[in-house]
Please model this.
Amino acid sequence: LEVIASVEPRIAEATRQELADQRGSLKLIASENYASPAVLLTMGTWFSDKYAEGTVGHRFYAACQNVDTVEALAAEHARELFGAPYAYAQPHSGIDANLVAFWSILAHRVETPALEKLGAKSVNDLTEQDWETLRHELGNQRLLGMSLDAGGHLTHGFRPNISGKMFHQRQYGTDPETGLLDYDRVAELAREFKPMVLVAGYSAYPRRVNFAKMREIADEVGATLMVDMAHFAGLVAGKVFTGDEDPVPHAHVTTSTTHKSLRGPRGGLVLAQEEFAADVDRGCPMVLGGPLSHVMAAKAVAFAEARRPEFAEYAQRIADNAKSLAEGFLTRGATLVTGGTDNHLVLLDVRSFGLTGRQAESALLEAGVVTNRNSVPQDPNGAWYTTGVRLGTPALTTRGFGSSEFDTVAELIVDVLSHTTAGTTKAGAPSKATFVLADGVAERTHARIDEM
Ligand code: PLP
Model:
């Protein structure tokens, strides 16, 4: 930090403060974690200075021999870790991984057959008219994904996102009574809509998914199954999700982030069955430019860590702790979407406290509990104010929290929310954003957190 401070002291100070904040609060954001020193240090090297567009052994720049080593190792560890025939470690983020996946599916299913039919090797060989026809065809495909309020991600066909614009999209939700995925309904929608891509995976669904069933649905309608395991990749790596719950053998293409439950650097990953490998390998130049070689190096280190037996124990503790957290809420009378969890996250419905998600998130933050507000199915408050708070166990499990600590976390959260009331606007009207936290609650919560 002294080196940084000698150039821009305010950045050094913000960095120091970030460490203090992350350590001094309860980090319950389901998509966050604490990467190991080995992972963090690997990101801060001169690999950042290197350009390496292309792929291993086939670069558009000279002197990429060390980047080749790094990328090949990251892919090898990922293949071994997840039992995947092919791995692509270049995507800079989860969204990039999904874009690479979408475009490789479109290349495989639309572009390559069209080029073959026209006897062309590449799109550059097409006449203007054939190119226009192909562009139209590429933009005329259908995607069926999980809706945002049911727990899906923006990239699963949400209209304001590029995925909802590059595809004709339809969304599946969850059962309004149980909050659970209704596979029969997904199958019905798939038969009606006939998507080219069926997306499974989630950001805020507190249950496991049967990917074998999703593959059956995809096969029945001729869709490609893409699973986005960004949130639960750590549970797949740690073999908590196996058989029908392991997406990798069932999906044609599986995408992930590397920084959530997988505990690596901030980045993305694509795994594919052999059939899609060559198309995914064209991620650059199809979607990406120069890879972040320093981050690929850190991915290789993180995947190597995840291949150790300790990681499987860690992954099991993530799931066990989520159950303890859920129990802690239920015994204190709180409401959970789907009534519980069997993965790494819990979705607390804060209506019973008379609050919006935004008010709950802000009150908890004041007390040192870092969460994020989240929509619940059919959310009456919309995506900005929301009605839920999403809580995940990966980060605090890394800090060594176990069942009794997570029960205390539930106790603290219920205590804070029970002492929070909805506020008003300056003009005295009811507000969905402002809140009043009773005197002394923030202080006593901070004191309990300091003891943990
Ligand atoms: N996919 C899912 C399911 C996610 O939850 C997220 C992130 O929240 C992403 C993709 C996007 O990841 P990133 O923020 O790295 O682009």
Summary: The chain has a mean pLDDT of 97. The CA atoms of residues 53 and 289 lie 6 Å apart. The two ends are 28 Å apart (CA to CA).
